[in-house]
Design brief:
The structure is a homodimer of 233-residue chains.
Chain A: E1 3-7, H1 22-28, E2 34-38, H2 48-60, E3 65-68, H3 75-81, E4 85-87, H4 92-101, H5 105-113, E5 118-121, H6 123-126, E6 155-157, H7 174-184, E7 189-191, E8 197-201, E9 204-208, E10 213-216, E11 223-225
Parallel strand pairs in A: 1-5, 2-3, 2-4, 4-5, 6-7
Antiparallel strand pairs in A: 1-8, 7-10, 8-9, 10-11
């Protein structure tokens, strides 16, 4: 039993927080009234309380209560007992560091494998992969490990961006970075564009939204697809 | 005695490898016939030999010999005896990992502090800072530490990019990432645009090229400047 909803981004251009996902969220969290929110990625360094308030607002329209994991005296027990979990985006290095420091990474791995519905956006989706090594984030803090939940047999590159053919900038493109990753790692990488999300139920995977995903396999040319079943499970 | 040349990029739009820096290189390496090249950052995963050949080509017009550090049986001794050092760009996580694995980080720190002329581009400039934590690179490998040379009292963000006011992309801007860095770190950050480089001689710092740099100090609004003396030494 495994239930995952992994989105590239929380917000699309012109929308508000989670607005483009409302229909999907209603379905994914059907029958669940309370969602445990993991706020540790702190986008732009906002506080855990501020971030939880934003998440709460995103779920208001579909009448779900959102409770911040940071408000529990015993976050391990809170995770173990959660009806559903949502990890928001922000800085992946920070998120992973806090999950390890608080002894939560292994518990989160277990409850997700055990069937607790897990939703992630951006950094929260990135950690569902084998490692955080295809994050786009800046290493603002040194994590004890790059290993993450391994809830899927690939890594996710959220906010995937196509090279801009008109750019005069000489920094590496996203594709170049992922190719560099594959010089040292075998894990498949899914480039998930903003507006795309993955819905996973046990051994079924579905790419949703209106875009293709870009699949990167070691020593093979990347390709566009809507069918991710070859890389899952 | 300290002599540093720290460039944002090796190549600017429309130019070839190091072409825009030829005049500066002639001056910086005056009287030096051989440059020790550190190829470990391996851009796009090219080999150490391939990368050294590119560097050699970049120095051909000014008649300098470039020797790859990877070709020495005893790279520690090679570093210690180098007349001048150039570290090329690529992946900073990889560069830092290899420097630590080979026991070279502390030696490089010493020889640079001791006056061996040091040139860096991109990742090679990033490691001149206090830590590698303002790199733009993907964490394709797990380094033993994020600490770097500390040859300057700040961190460098190479390939600094201004936010695109027309972008519909919701990934974090460079400025947002650096602000996140300052939630957890005090080190000043210099956003060094492509086409800019720093020339440092003992206690003097000069920003060169035709652009301003963007200076980020903890809990202060970032500002544009051509005078970096307030952050050095």
């Amino acid at each position: 039993m495994k239930r995952l909803l992994l989105a590239s981004t929380s917000t699309v251009y012109g929308g508000t927080y989670l607005s483009y996902l409302q229909e999907e969220l209603t379905d994914f969290f059907a029958g669940i009234d309370e969602i445990l929110f993991i706020p540790y990625a702190r986008p732009s360094g906002i506080t855990h309380d501020e971030y939880t308030a934003i998440a709460q607002q995103g779920f208001e329209k579909i009448q779900k209560r959102v409770v911040g994991l940071h408000t529990f005296a015993d976050p391990k027990a809170a995770l173990a007992q959660a009806k559903a979990i949502f990890t928001g985006g922000g800085n992946t290095f920070l998120l992973v560091t806090r999950l390890y420091e608080l002894g939560l990474m292994s518990i989160l791995r277990e409850v997700v494998a055990g069937g607790t519905p897990y939703m992630g956006t951006s950094a929260g989706s990135n950690i569902a992969g084998q490692t955080m090594q295809t994050t786009n984030d800046m290493p603002i803090i040194y994590p004890p490990s790059f290993q993450t939940l391994g809830a899927v047999p690939f890594n996710i590159n959220p906010h995937y961006l196509d090279p801009d053919p008109h750019s005069k900038h000489k920094g590496e493109t996203r594709e170049t970075r992922i190719k560099e990753f594959h010089k040292f790692n075998d894990i498949p990488v899914i480039g998930l564009r903003e507006g795309s999300w993955l819905r996973i139920t046990d051994d079924q995977i579905e790419l949703k939204g209106n875009l293709t995903a870009r699949v990167f396999l070691k020593e093979q040319p990347p390709y566009e697809t809507t069918d991710l079943s070859p890389v899952y499970p």
